[in-house]
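tool_call predict_complex ligand=magnesium ion
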Amino acid sequence: MALIDVRHLTVDLPSEDGTVHAVQDVSFAVEPGEFFGIVGESGSGKSVLVQALLGLIPGARVTGEAWFDGRDLLALNDRDLRSLRGSAVSMVFQDPLSSLHPQYTIGAQITELIHTHRSVSREQARTMAVDMLGKVGIPDPTSRFGFYPHQFSGGMRQRVMIAMALVLEPKLIIADEPTTALDSTVQTQILELLRNMRDEFGVTILMITHDLGVLSRVADRVMVMYAGRRLEMGPRAALFAAPVHPYTSGLLRSSPANYTPGADLVPISGRPPSLLEVTTGCVFTPRCPQAHEQCAETPPVRRYSDGAEAACWLDVSGKAASVLTDTAAQAVVNSHPAAEPAGDPVEPIIRATGIEMVYRNRRRSSARVLDGIDLTLNRGETLGLVGESGCGKTTLARILAGLIEPTGGTITLAGRSTRGLGRAEWKAVRRDIQLVFQDPFGSLNPRRRVGSIIGDPYRIHGTVSRHERRSRVQGLMELVGLNPEHYNRFPAQFSGGQRQRIGISRALALNPAVIILDEPVSALDVSIQAQILNLLSSLQHEFSLSYLFISHDLSVVRHMCDRIAVMENGRIIENAPTEQIYRAPREEFTQKLLAASTFNTAPVTEIARTLVPVVAGGPGLVRENVA
Amino acid sequence: MKLSRYLLSRIGFGLVVLFALSLFVFLLFYLAPGDPARAIAGDKANNELLEQVRQNLGLNRPIGEQYLSFIGNLLQGNLGFSFRNQLPVTGIILDRLPVTLSLVVGGVVLWLAIGVPIGIASARRPGTVRDRAGQTFALLGISFPTFVLGMMSLYLLYFLPTRAGFPIFPPSGYVPLTEDPLQWAWHLILPWTTLALVTAAIYARLTRGQMLEVLGEDYIRTARAKGLTERRVIYKHAFRSAMPPLVTQLGNDVGFLLGGAIVIEQVYGLPGIGNLAVTSVQAQDRPTIIGVVLVGGIFIVAVNLIVDLCYVLLDSRIRTAS
Amino acid sequence: MSPVRTPKQAAAVAAVVQRGSTSLTLRRLRRDPASMIAAVFILLLVLFALCAPLIAAWTGHGPNEQFRDTGLSPSGTPVAPGGQFLLGTDQLGRDVFVRLAYGAQVSLMVGVLASLAAATIGVVVGVVAGYLGGVVDTILSRVMDLVMSVPFLLCAIALVSVFGPSLPLSVAVIVFFSWTALGRVIRGQVLALREREFVEAARSLGASHVSIMIRDLLPNLAVPILIYSTLMIPSAIVFEATLSFLGLGVVPPTASWGGMLAEAGNNSVYLVAWWLVIFPGLTLLGATLSFNILGDGLRDALDPRSQMGRGR
Amino acid sequence: SNAKTASTATAGAGSGVPGGTLKVLGQADVDHLDPALGAMVGTTSIMRAISRQLISYKTVDDAKERLVPQGDLATSVPTPTDGGLTYTFEIRQGAMWDIPSGPRQIVAADFARGFKRLCTPVQASTMLGYFTDAIVGMQSFCDGFEKVAPTPDAMTAYVEGTPISGVTAVNDKTLTIKLTKPAGDFAYMLSLNNASPAPVEALKYVPDSPEYRSNYFSAGPYRIKSYTADKSLILERNPAWKAEADPLRKAYVDTIEVTFGLTADAVAQQLQAGSADMSLENSSIPTAVLEQMRATNDPKLTTIAAGRVDPFLWINTKTSNNGGALQKLEVRQALEYAVDKAAIVQTFGGTQNAKVQNGIFGPGVIGYHDFDLYPTSGSKGDPAKTKELLAKAGVTNLTLKLPYRTKGLEPQIAQTLQASFEKAGVTIQLVPVNPSDYYSKFLTNHENTANGTWDIAPVGWTPDWQGGAARSVFQPQFTYTGTPQGYNYVDYNNDKANALAAQALASTSPDEQAKLWAQVDEAVMADAVIIPLASRLDTLYRSARVQNFTPYALSVQGDWTNVWLKR
Ligand SMILES: Nc1ncnc2c1ncn2[C@@H]1O[C@H](COP(=O)(O)OP(=O)(O)OP(=O)(O)O)[C@@H](O)[C@H]1O
Ligand SMILES: Nc1ncnc2c1ncn2[C@@H]1O[C@H](COP(=O)(O)OP(=O)(O)OP(=O)(O)O)[C@@H](O)[C@H]1O
Ligand SMILES: [Mg+2]
Ligand SMILES: [Mg+2]
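tool_result ok
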């Protein structure tokens, strides 16, 4: 008997532009004690799905059924639903700081929950809370009880959230991206904690994430969502090793975490559809490499003997399917071999020695952010820089780009020391070194037209006359794969991946020698990420650029770089060729990063799979009657 | 330590404000045309008399000296003597304070009681009829010039009924609380209502805006996910966070009004500080004007300090910073 | 050339989802009947003000012309609205309707001029303080704090009492005490914008401070500037009316709404001549209400998520 | 016990009911709370209650009888001897000072001291000029006083040690006053509160200082219980006062509460509503409300004339503005024709509230007569004539600066004047002036006059006393002896008028006085330095519970000491 059995759940959200069909006809069931994962790209409706279950979305039109403990959650009145929230079903949200009330102590927030559902004395509630805080690994919980959320680190806050979720021993915990906001190392700890809690308390966990890697480590079963639909669902091993749906395979292939040296990322072309219209047939058709006419009709849900289910016309039964060997599905092949350093290795384009950076805050004492960084970047080389959030990566990038003055150390750019350069001289230097930023939206002025954004370098440096500018800009746009006709659009009218292309084309305008890429893909969905990474590679070859590639994700870096420098607390602790780091990481820290960045599924080479006849009424229900 | 430094810096800034204000008023009147000596000595005074008055008041000393002695007196709580009746300005102002205080305190209670619930109700169901009604009320209140509302309510609620022989509200005037609490309140009802209506609107809007913002916060979702009742979510979680801007606004309003609810006091003939300001301006009674402006500034600074203290109490982040 | 060529496809999808921000704004505005009515009312008022001389010519009543025989009773009581005087006469036998039109000129001019001036100062100070930061910011912010902690009505009264009432002084006083609200908002916005990566990007390209302030920051401030300026107009109108009401605004016989109300109030004429309060009062209310509604509508349309607060 | 005496004493006056609190509302605070200094009309009401003079008036409805001098602290009004130069007064017995050491009889020496206090250097009385002119030795006393060190001790020593030669306390009961020249109006002057006696204790304080105010020594039926500047004045019964020693005041009410600082509207509202009883100012009823009271024939409304010429226009004959046009008689005469005086009267609420005025003396003042040197049809002005005369004088494009006080009806009057003048082709620039700056900034400051800061200025003048008060109109405004005078803004002088005035003052026959003053009036008007506009009647209103509301001539308001309250 499933703990929660969701049937034909559809959620429509009225909005100004029309109704958003955020979730369409999704069914799934979670067994008691199971660790169930829902994965999907941003906007695929994961959060809406779970929040709709608990009636947390005001104004949503929800249809379908959601049986929990013998009751249909969607049919419950407010009062009954409230009594379930927090006690039988609790939630853990993505951002642990914003999800805790900043003005109340964490103790008060936990005991408030207890008092809402149980009539216990204040002391009892306090004891319960302190106990639970201890169990989730908060050291010295008695004194921390009276702390405010801001007095904890991100990981600790998430532990507090989990403690709050567990304190009333719920049957089901819904975790909505509980680790996305956290560092990869902390992320691992939290996942571990969730799994331990499952094992210890026997709670059922329904976890949402957009990160396939995360689920590959913890989930028992995984559901893949796309554009509000359930495309595939199945046991972890089967899903990761031999996905049924082309979308799932696409996701896996485009994920750098799934990297095998020499092979290339295979991006899923295009971008997710609008949720404003309901499409008949398979939603993935426009992006599907294996699409055919049949896909215009609603696909059947096929169920296989190994537990995998997918809404797809493809019948993969009997196939030995492994995503990594299934080269037939690869739509495009990247042509270039592993990069070979071009240019003179003796004279690096960037040589930084002993860079130090101390921020002096007005009130607080000074903070040493960079502590003696030595770094060289050779011509034509891609150097990866990885490290946890806050270790100083961006700071280093800004120093190299001349945006801030380091408090110590010297930088030589193409043989020229940057110390004591005047404004005009710096301006000249800037043509050689350009930046591409993490946030593709934030780095483009939302109120300016794309043409003028890309043309900015020309305007500022006065290298290209006014009339010529347009054609030059359009050339750049073509180069990075943008439609030159969109010259007059605003950034908001582009997708995330396209925006990042705009940023890249701007960086290319002045023919720089070096481009510093500060987490250029971490804000993008995997399917788009691969497009950008491939673009970067091809540009590098075309213009023999040198890249300093910054990321917190080791797998991305590994895919791109010749050499990797690992940073921790403002120091470079390891600096070696990529494969060497990957195979034999010297530092423990590097090992942790590595562990957090790869898929953790046993490679399955051979699966014998047969189509299973569908039994009506069971979990993972086939849609029988199309309305 | 940080906390005390924060407060100290606020106090320091308050002093700077007062200093700047005193300089402003002093210079304004020093450089102004017109002869204060004549204002005191009266229209029929002859030149010798004028000279004597100047001497007595030190008006013929250099400006810097005059300012210094002015500041010196100020530090002793002495605002000088009114030109008009030779009484200490401090006393005159203190005398008016209860009237303004009565007006403001009653007004504050009333406008909070009207504005905040309307704002909350609006924010809970944005876009509904209830919200529209609340918004309309707020817009009307914000757009209504105080004196127009005052004149209209005097005409409609006092004059017409009185002329028709059914006096409902008393005419303008002030009855001290100590003398007759009932009459005090009765006489203040129209001023309170007028003040409250035009001000409540601002609070309704501010509350609505803040609440809408806060209601979109993640921790409100958390609170709902905890199974709390909507009441508790709204009042304990959301309103708590929406409060700081309200407190700031309240501080500003109370500070400004304590310095003289000029328009209301004029319309309703209340002998408060605002009324004193207007009469002293008409009489060119400079020490009193300077005094009123400075006291107005002191109120603003003081109330803002209280607001800062409230912030410390309201905001765990400031409170726990050490 | 590129192995990842899909932009056309992607763009096609984008075209479906994305709507131009201007068309969206207009659509939102048009869908808000209150804003449309307010805008129409404002247009009518502007027309009314512009046509004041025409109205005077049409009625044959000058704005300051006193109709001692037809516009007043022998004991000096004004004449009620009627055929000859559409909205009645005032205590001096002048045509209220004509004066209302001329008053509209003053009120609208003061409102618009003062708001424009205050907005300009506010934007310049806000942008400079927010963008340059450091000592400049500290000083400018303190100045703003200072102006905001001044009991403005008291100071306005003191100022006007010293220099004598006049229209330019009123405008100056209004400007002096109203630029800070926008200044603060702009500063706050710039502080946030300054941290946005596109500013960093401009800097990394070598753009100068002035270029960044004008090309990068200003376009992003259009929304708050537009909204705040619109909302500043009614405050300025009321401020002027209040000054006139206290006898510190425009100099008679120039007609202004506040002055008309003050004259009606000063000698209690309005008790026998309700039209002296009702018409200027309602017009004033209508004007401030319309600007407020329009400001709100603009805000909702331009920046639906924000709940930009507003000063008094 | 006082109440009892009062009630028995008034048995003849009808059914007077003693007791209760009379609530009086005022717009402005008193100018002074010292009989020597008080000059504002409103203050006179208070002085009636807390001070007494040698001569005063009965409060009756009959306008003539109201102005007949009566003995107050003097047992009777004496006939002057010595060719009109010597007055001998017998002091009423039983009239007491309220001083801390206990009641004390008011004696003749107290009057001499009262006169001396008028010229205390720091705070001289505005009425001082009349007395220094009239009383022998007063001028030299005052000259000596100016040299005294400004310490209370030195001043006391001077006052007590230096006599005014013309004022003699023959004994406690008898006082003689010698005049420099005969003055037919001297009895009227003595009725001013400025001519009140002062006890020796008063010398301890600077006149009208806050200390003096809080230690006020009353001679009247009431004394000051509390005074808060700008806010309130509360009078209570003076235990030292005896009803039988006061023929003029009945003092029915127990307490008088004066509240200051209300607007005229508020005062009117409260009187109508009955939450207050009387107004401190006269003419405080807004015209609109007045209109309404008239319509309902409200019996609580009374009108009296106080000889007030208000407003009239001074023409600046010293300015060189407009090429000195205003210095030409023809130009000024042209202006006389321009003004629509009827419109001004209408602004005051019509002929029931004001009358067109054509001379310098208002109705009620001896010398007032009906004449018009510059007649226009219906007094509505004759723009054509003005234009014609201006053209004849060769003046075009006349632009005149007209200052006005931003108070009450004055802005309306200024606008009405502007409208009149503009019809006649004269441009008027209105200059709003802070009410309290008006006289000091624009008018009494001779530099402004010479510099042409103003060209024509509306002012008002109320005679300083009632009845034979022509001198108090003519002397301060229209005579010039070489030193600038406060209210003769343009140093106007007319020898013919001066000679006529001297004759009038020396005359003892009221008829002859009237004739002579009338000639003075016409002589001044021929020079066209002022444009009289209207004489205003004062409209008085009180609450329904006020009984026996009869005006006191000097305060031009109901007499607080003779009203009673219906309960
Ligand atoms: N209240 C709402 N009103 C209208 N549309 C909404 C609302 N909430 C979410 N949506 C839309 O519904 C779709 C699904 O959103 P949802 O938050 O469930 O995505 P998600 O899968 O959780 O994505 P992410 O990984 O970014 O959290 C999105 O297109 C989103 O824009
Ligand atoms: N302007 C500044 N003043 C003071 N401290 C700063 C400043 N900018 C950055 N820091 C601090 O310097 C440290 C390094 O920041 P940096 O942005 O370089 O980290 P990062 O490695 O890029 O992190 P992330 O992965 O989150 O982008 C952080 O602790 C940050 O708080
Ligand atoms: Mg989500
Ligand atoms: Mg970074």
